[in-house]
Design a protein that fits this description.
434 residues; single chain; alpha/beta; five-stranded parallel sheet; Arc Repressor Mutant, subunit A; Helicase, Ruva Protein, domain 3; elongated; Rossmann fold; 3 domains
């Protein structure tokens, strides 16, 4: 029996002491002083910006006051947390020294060892998919049982997958559907600390948060869980022809002096799809050589600008989608490391009809089987044009655009099908064969 994918909703309680953050006191103090460099703010606001409970930074604020780095400008309420703190001249000088080392100013980082341990637990907690769960993930699509029979074992194995076949048949959609099939939720740290170096991890373009910000007006609310982590859906990260080799390694900003995590590290725990493989702005061999070790050992090695190397988990369902011949893109050694190679062929006439009906339904257009039969008989059969899963969507969008231009109610008619095909297909043969 399958086990539903699940993860504890609170992986770590909020730290109550500096020691429990796993960070050096000086490192937390540096971040606190840089936070105050932005202007006067209450102690509670400083803690909120750092995503730490106030009681953790309170002794650091007192120490900074004793060293005359900060001063109290007033009170916004009762208690030390409501004091309005501001940097002194000495404090501003100290903040500038800290900013010259690193301009990172945001949530306190999580130690690398803690992140690695959490990722390992996340992998162990992942269950297996059965046919019903996989079918529900693809319920909004037209996917044959034979395809699901190949996708299911690949997801359960957690190995890399090569989707190949003609363009326009939904290889990208299949990969995204596998991410939905895995489902569940996980946590991503805002940033990771590696020997004092900051690597930003949370990326709104890759991660979809699942919770609102904790109520900042309540001291009690701030101690429920560790707010250095963000609860997100399992990521499905898609890259295409824009992918470059430097995106697969740590990116160090010479001006800000901190790092951004590589794209595959942001995808940890989820799905990473390299779409249009073979059309990137780098040779396929360069990408394959970069990933031979991670695909085999499930760990990756990153390098700081200081030359220090360190190991991170590679817990990613890696997928390659291409309409090129796989044997022309990768040698046998690499293909061996991609155990699941799945051909995504053209839809049958019945599947094409179902896709057409589904797209009509989503666009609130009336559907008639006779119109699909006319489309197939007039614009496909006479010239041997191959059916593609994307054709119904694209042709219907053209029909709607044409109807809006003419100022008429969108509908599917023979005349509109002919007009859409004439502008969509480029072989010059549409609409000329009776």
């Amino acid at each position: 029996m399958s086990i539903a994918v699940s993860v504890s909703v609170a992986p770590f309680p909020a730290p109550t002491t500096l020691e429990q953050t796993g960070l050096a006191p000086d490192q937390v103090e540096m971040l606190m002083v840089k936070t105050l460099y932005g202007g006067e703010m209450t102690g509670l606001t400083v803690a909120d910006r750092m995503r730490l409970p106030f009681q953790v930074i309170e002794p650091l604020l007192e120490r900074a006051r004793a060293e005359r780095l900060i001063e109290v400008r007033g009170m916004a309420g009762s208690g030390t947390a409501s004091y309005r703190f501001a940097l002194t001249d000495l404090g501003r000088d100290r903040a500038q020294q800290y900013l010259a080392t690193s301009q990172y100013c945001g949530p306190a980082p999580v130690p690398l060892a803690v992140y690695v341990d959490y990722t390992r637990q996340l992998a162990e907690a992942r269950g297996f998919l059965d046919r019903g769960r996989l079918q529900s993930a693809f319920a909004h699509l037209v996917v044959g049982d034979d395809m699901l029979q190949q996708l299911g074992p690949a997801v359960n194995a957690g190995k890399s997958v090569f989707l190949y076949g003609p363009p326009g048949n939904g290889k990208t959609v299949l990969a995204e559907g596998m991410g939905r099939a895995i489902g569940g939720e996980m946590y991503v740290p805002h940033a990771i600390d590696v020997d004092g170096h900051i690597i930003t991890m949370f990326d709104p373009t890759c991660h979809q948060p699942l919770q609102e910000m904790t109520d900042r007006s309540s001291l009690v609310a701030l101690v429920l869980d560790d707010r250095r982590w963000v609860r997100v859906r399992r990521p499905v990260v898609v890259v295409g022809g824009e992918l470059t080799l430097d995106q697969l390694d740590l990116r160090y900003n010479q001006l800000s002096r901190f790092y951004e995590a590589p794209i595959q590290l942001k995808a940890n725990g989820g799905v990473f799809l390299v779409d249009d493989f073979g059309r990137q702005r780098m040779r396929p061999d360069d990408l394959l050589n970069r990933w031979i070790v991670p695909l085999e050992s499930r760990v990756d090695y990153l390098t700081l600008h200081t030359g220090k190397k360190f190991q991170v988990p590679f817990d990613v369902l890696t997928m390659f989608a291409t309409n090129l011949d796989p044997s022309s893109l990768a040698d046998e050694a690499f293909l061996r490391r991609i155990p699941y190679k799945i051909a995504v062929g053209n839809p049958t006439v019945d599947q094409f009809t179902q896709i057409f009906e589904m797209n009509c339904r989503t666009r609130r257009l009336p559907f008639h089987h006779v119109m699909v039969a006319y489309l197939y008989r007039r614009h496909y059969l006479p010239i041997g044009r191959a059916l593609r899963a994307c054709h119904p969507r694209d042709l219907l969008d053209q029909i709607i655009a044409l109807c809006r231009y003419r100022g008429i109610e969108p509908a599917v008619t023979r005349e509109l099908i002919d007009a859409a095909c004439a502008s969509y297909f480029v072989d010059g043969k549409s609409g000329v064969v009776q």
